[in-house]
């Protein structure tokens, strides 16, 4: 049996631990270290850190398609990817206080009125709701604790020595440090740990896979303008592709009904995202979604995106533009932090030729949704930093140089809850298969033969 350390209690790490203990792996041998707080301590304003990670306080839209949410099927094939995503969705329902309220929207046909301007990606989405995610988090956490899983909260892993299987934890409040040892490590730090992942990749010169840039804006408008499409697809994904330019655009992560724009802080800069509340007391009849460009062929894409984001900041925050509106409030009633600009000249200058794609997208939406006119605003920028993806063994997401170190979730190539959770589950299955055989879909493990004796692991 191995001592497993999971760095990051996000959806990837938590699903991995759940898969292990569900199948009898001793929880006492699993330690999850997170710089955020337990679900009982975490505040709604702590968007990125703590139990269930960014996924835990997100909108809770569980997408169910291998073309959405980052890479999964490239490692394990389509069928396995769907099966892994099923397991993640089942976990969210299992710990849900009212599982019957988890709804699935499953659009089947592309409506004529969006043609010829846009294509529409059709895929099922399970909608859990931000407010229920807090309760799910508590139930899920209690389960893992009851199985013996060890948690270290408000503990930031600041160094990992892959050669000697050790790491260093720094307690941010006090700067106190302690070390840990592992036999197997899961690196599941999500977007908030992207800097740390990059530093380790540089330190150990990991070979990486090439990545595009993903950048754009968060678009917000009254929901009524989009209702016709929302009735067909809750989380609609409009898209268009300019093959010869290496650019594609898509609307991304649509929030409706009780929809709020959220500020993300990465590398000290403000970028935007969105979330929706399930509880109709928060209803504001707004819709928001990202308009994201994927740009291929940029040299040093990561540095390019960081530089553009940095330039799109003013007075310590991101930008807001609208022909008629002002920035909205958060679900807690505060202001969404953004500096309102009067025109888009500066943004156009910074984004260069790529800005035209965004404006054309908005102009064409005005044709498809005729009541929209000037009744919209954009928060600039929204970005998905695709960290240089370390090359991993597709069989178990382990690093080529260190086969006991697995990268999972947004720290690898995921960009969503279901795929991140599925990657964690995929690695957990590989670990289980070291100690178990699979018979008729069930694990028969070393620990099943101990007749209730306490085993000295
Ligand atoms: C506002 C918002 C809304 C979103 N809405 C959706 C949605 O509706 N649907 C969807 O599919 N996706 C959504 N996402 C994206 C989704 O949340 C992420 O893709 C997913 O959470 C990634 O899971 P993960 O486990 O890889 O990382 P995360 O969930 O980000 O978890 C990583 C964890 O690692 C911890 N950590 C980081 N660095 C360290 C360190 N050095 N030491 C210790 N701990 C560390 C963090 O505290 C965090 O808890 C949203 C994201 C945001 C920010």
Q: What does it look like?
A:
With 457 residues, the chain is an alpha+beta fold. The chain is built from eleven helices and 27 strands. It has helices spanning 11-22, 53-56, 73-76, 78-94, 130-146, 194-203, 227-230, 301-311, 345-351, 355-368, 417-435; strands spanning 4-7, 30-33, 61-63, 103-105, 119-121, 125-127, 150-152, 156-161, 166-171, 176-181, 184-187, 208-209, 213-222, 237-242, 247-255, 259-266, 269-276, 286-295, 319-321, 339-341, 377-384, 389-390, 392-393, 398-399, 405-407, 436-439, 442-445. An eight-stranded mixed β-sheet has the order 5-14-15-18-13-21-19-20. A hairpin with a 2-residue loop joins strand 16 and strand 17. Helix 1 packs parallel to helix 11 (417-435) and helix 4 packs across helix 11. The chain is globular. Bound molecules: flavin-adenine dinucleotide (FAD). Residues 7-13, 33-36, 47-50, 53-55, 58-61, 63, 69, 156-157, 188-193, 196, 253, 262, 264, 273, 275, 409-411, 414-418, 420 line the site of flavin-adenine dinucleotide (FAD).
User: What order do the strands of the largest sheet run in, or round the barrel if closed?
Assistant: 5-14-15-18-13-21-19-20
Q: By helix and strand content, what is the structural category?
A: alpha+beta
Shape by Cα distribution: globular
Give the helix level as a range of percent.
25-40%
Q: If helices are DSSP runs of H or I spanning 4 or more residues, what is the number of helices?
A: 11
Mean of pLDDT: 92
Uncertain stretches of 5 or more adjacent residues: 452-457
- Tell me the β content: 25-35%
Assembly type: single chain
N→C terminal distance: 6 Å
Bound molecules: flavin-adenine dinucleotide
| Strand segment tally | 27
């Amino acid at each position: 049996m191995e001592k497993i350390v999971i760095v990051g209690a996000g959806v990837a790490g938590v699903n991995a631990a759940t898969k292990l203990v569900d199948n009898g792996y001793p929880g006492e041998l699993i330690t999850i270290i997170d710089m955020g707080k337990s679900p009982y301590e975490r505040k709604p304003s702590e968007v990125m850190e703590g139990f269930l990670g960014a996924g835990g306080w997100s909108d809770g839209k569980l997408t169910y398609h291998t073309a959405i949410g980052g890479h999964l099927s490239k490692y394990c094939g389509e069928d396995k990817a769907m099966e892994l995503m099923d397991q993640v969705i089942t976990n969210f329902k299992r710990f849900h206080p009212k599982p019957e309220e988890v709804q699935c929207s499953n659009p089947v046909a592309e409506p004529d009125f969006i043609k010829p301007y846009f294509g529409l990606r059709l895929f099922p989405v399970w909608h859990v709701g931000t407010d229920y995610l807090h309760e799910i988090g508590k139930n899920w956490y209690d389960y893992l604790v009851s199985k013996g899983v060890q948690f270290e909260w408000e503990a930031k892993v600041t160094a990992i020595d892959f050669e000697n299987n050790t790491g260093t934890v720094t307690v941010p409040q006090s700067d106190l440090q302690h070390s840990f040892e592992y036999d197997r490590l899961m690196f599941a730090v999500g977007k908030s740990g992207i800097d740390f992942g990059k530093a380790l990749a540089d330190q150990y010169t990991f070979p990486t896979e090439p990545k595009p840039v993903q950048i754009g804006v968060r678009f917000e408008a009254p929901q009524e303008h989009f209702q016709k499409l929302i009735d067909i697809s809750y989380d609609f994904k409009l898209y268009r592709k300019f093959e010869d330019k290496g650019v594609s655009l898509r609307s991304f992560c649509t929030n409706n009904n009780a929809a709020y724009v959220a500020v993300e802080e990465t590398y000290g800069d403000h970028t935007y995202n969105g979330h929706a509340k399930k509880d109709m007391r928060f209803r504001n009849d707004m819709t928001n979604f990202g308009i994201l460009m994927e740009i291929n062929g940029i040299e040093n894409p990561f540095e390019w995106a960081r530089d553009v984001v940095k330039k799109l900041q003013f007075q310590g925050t991101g930008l807001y533009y609208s022909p008629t509106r002002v920035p909205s409030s958060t679900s807690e009633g505060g202001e969404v932090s953004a500096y309102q600009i009067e025109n888009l000249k500066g943004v156009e200058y910074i984004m260069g030729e790529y800005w035209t794609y965004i404006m054309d997208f908005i102009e064409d939406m005005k044709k498809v949704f005729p009541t929209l006119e000037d009744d919209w605003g954009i928060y600039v920028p929204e970005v998905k930093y695709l960290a240089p993806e370390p090359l991993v063994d597709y069989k178990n997401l382990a690093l080529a140089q260190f086969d006991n170190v697995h990268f999972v979730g947004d720290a690898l190539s995921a960009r969503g809850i279901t795929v991140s959770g599925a990657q964690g589950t995929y690695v957990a299955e590989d670990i289980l298969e070291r100690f178990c055989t699979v018979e008729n879909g069930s694990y028969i493990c070393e620990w099943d033969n101990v007749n209730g004796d306490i085993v000295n692991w």
